[in-house]
Design brief:
alpha+beta; Immunoglobulin-like; about 15% helix
């Protein structure tokens, strides 16, 4: 009878072991939105929550990037082609468990025009932000986007003022490098009226000059 009980308990334990739920998570401080290296951790479901597995209890395999222990390095082009999904095998004990990890990808581009016009004596920097699939928003640089203009030229996100200006506005198009259909446009006009503050010899009035001017009035 005792042997039968032990046998049944062993079967139940095995079933419980093989029915356990595992998942992969990443350290959010790794910022996979911006950087292509993140730290991964395996977790197992324990009651109504998950607990972290000890590193010596498992190992990971993938053909979609490189693993150095828990450090995972991925190719952003590949990640975007797969809509952020990466496939892994988690090996623990004598089990190999296929798992998928969802990484955030750029979904929306927003152009922030911090001035309403371009001063025709200065280059113009385009400020661009991106909203990712996890809802987080970050500034974007030329590693994520390409910016083109219909006048002048671009150096990354900086518009270079041309020597000859026979136009009154510039149309900018911001294009995602990994999903070219994801793009945003904006039009900025050149400033028409001369601002005395743009004069190279311009100096702001001192506080005493302002007070004396008011007294004279």
């Amino acid at each position: 009878m005792k042997s039968l009980v032990f046998f049944v308990l062993a079967i139940l334990c095995c079933q419980s072991l093989y029915s356990q739920e595992y998942r992969l998570v990443y350290d959010e401080q790794s910022l996979p939105e911006l950087y292509n290296r993140i730290y991964l951790f395996a977790e197992v479901k324990d009651g109504g929550s998950y607990r972290k597995l000890s590193n010596n209890k498992y190992r990971l395999q993938t053909t979609e990037g490189a693993l150095d222990g828990n450090l995972y390095t991925f190719n952003r082009q590949h990640i975007y082609a797969n809509k952020g999904i990466v496939r892994f095998n988690l090996i623990t004990g004598n089990k190999t468990i296929p798992l998928a990890l969802q990484l955030p990808v750029l979904e929306e581009i927003n152009i922030n025009l911090y001035t309403d016009s371009i001063k025709p004596i200065l280059n113009y920097y385009l400020n661009v932000e991106g909203k990712f699939s996890n809802g987080r928003v970050f500034p974007l640089d030329s590693s994520f986007i390409t910016v083109v203009s219909d006048a002048g030229s671009m150096k990354g996100l900086e518009w270079i003022l041309p020597k000859e200006r026979n136009f009154d506005k510039v149309n900018f198009t911001v294009i995602s490098k990994f999903h070219p259909e994801n793009r945003k446009q904006a039009t900025v006009y050149l400033k028409k009226y001369k601002d005395p503050r743009d004069d190279p010899n311009y100096q702001d009035r001192t506080e005493d000059e302002i007070i004396n001017d008011r007294k004279r009035r």
